[in-house]
Amino acid sequence: MIESALFNSAVPYRVYGGLRFFERAEIKHALAYLRLLENPNDDTSFIRVVNFPPRGIGARSIESLQDAARNAGCSLHDAVSAVPGKAGANLGAFVAMLDVLREQTQGQNLRGIISQMLESSGLIEHYRNEKEGADRIENLDELINAAESFVTQEGFGRDAVALPLDEQGQPLTQSPASQGLDPDQPILDAPLNGVLDADTGETLSPLAAFLTHAALEAGDNQAQAGQDAVQLMTVHASKGWSSMACSSVAWKKACFRTKTR
Fold first, then answer.
1. Domain check: are 248 and 202 in the same one?
2. Residue 257 pLDDT more than 60?
3. CB 3.0-4.6 Å disulfide test: which of 11, 182, 200, 215 passes with 6?
4. How many other CB atoms are there within 10 angstroms of residue 151's CB atom?
5. Alpha-carbon distance 54 to 43, whole Å?
6. CATH code at 25?
């Protein structure tokens, strides 16, 4: 993908007439699910996908959950059990789905985790039923490729365990060897060395490192006005710009003829 290649190479670029890849709604939904696998207590991601695809959790249910979390001083995830009735049951089903998904993806590489998440979350099925869902599914497939390209470039190895868990089911932040695990497990191409987070000093797993990368990509990294940068535009958008340019030229010619008469 051109955008990923430019970003990974630290080449400034600007997108005209469309959204950047990591700003697309379907990509944001997918990343929110991945963040919840990495950190169940991410309230922002929880709110984004708790009812997407729709699962009968409305605004009133979310308000009740937020009130329960506020009163208990805990995350939305941890407050689900305090919500009664049907709302609590629907919220509990969502949390249970995430817990099962986390167990299913234990020991998998990043490609496997994302593929499993897209199916188990219902995102793929949801977009299959949308009129223009094929394009969104294509973007989600590209997310898998971008993630695999990232971990390879960062030196993890394409089959490195993306979400290693300790005996308590919590994500590891160190290499398997440092945790007393066998670094020669068949699922690994190479030991998981991790990427050092410059802000926290922690060693990130491939999944955590990719989510950090995606957050930066979705932030303010687009080239600023006046900065030398690669200019990106879709073919569809370019047709619109061409039409505008032609109209502008025609308008100027018409004005010139009017003035000279």
1. no
2. no
3. 11
4. 24
5. 18
6. 1.10.486.10
